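Running log. JK asked me to keep both predictions on one page so they can be read side by side. First protein, sequence followed by its tokens:
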Amino acid sequence: MDKLFKDIKNNGYKRQKDINSSRPTYKGTSKREGTNAGEVEVLISRSGQIIFCDGRHRLTIAKILKINKIPVIINVFHEKYIRKEIKKNINTLEPQDIIEHIFD
């Protein structure tokens, strides 16, 4: 974790896919593999609350370093929340804008 902390402090927060191959990758202790391994992952509740799911080391380091914004993987949107947001903004949103609008 010390290496990860120093790397984020010195080079900024990067997604796994954006980490240069010359830099070490940090996948934590998770046994999961694939494109989301090592990333901060969240869920969105029916009320729109962001619920932490995975990536506690990266999230904690970002908080310690007072990094205000980090990229996250959204694993699940509650169906009721999506319906509510789409209905509320149906006249102004394009499909590709839905996620960006929800988090503005």
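And the second, directly underneath as requested:
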Amino acid sequence: MKHVSMYTLSTCPWCRKTKKYFTDHNVPFKYVDYDLASVPEQERIEQEMRSRGGPLSFPWVLIGDDLVVGWNPAKYDELLAMNKAS
């Protein structure tokens, strides 16, 4: 299974929906709530987000090497289905 990780905000309803999507689909994931992270960790997160070419927007989800920014269950389904086919 592809590794799923995300950067979220603790107060963001779309971020909560994204976490729930992966939980409901029994897909393991790791996340960091950007707003609860230390300043050095926030700086590291921003650098990673910029280096991957994505906007500084949340939720910011990596499924394998594929980046999805925002609540997009259709794209999550697509990327997870590709994983199941391989």
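Observation for JK regarding the second prediction: The chain has one domain: 4-85.
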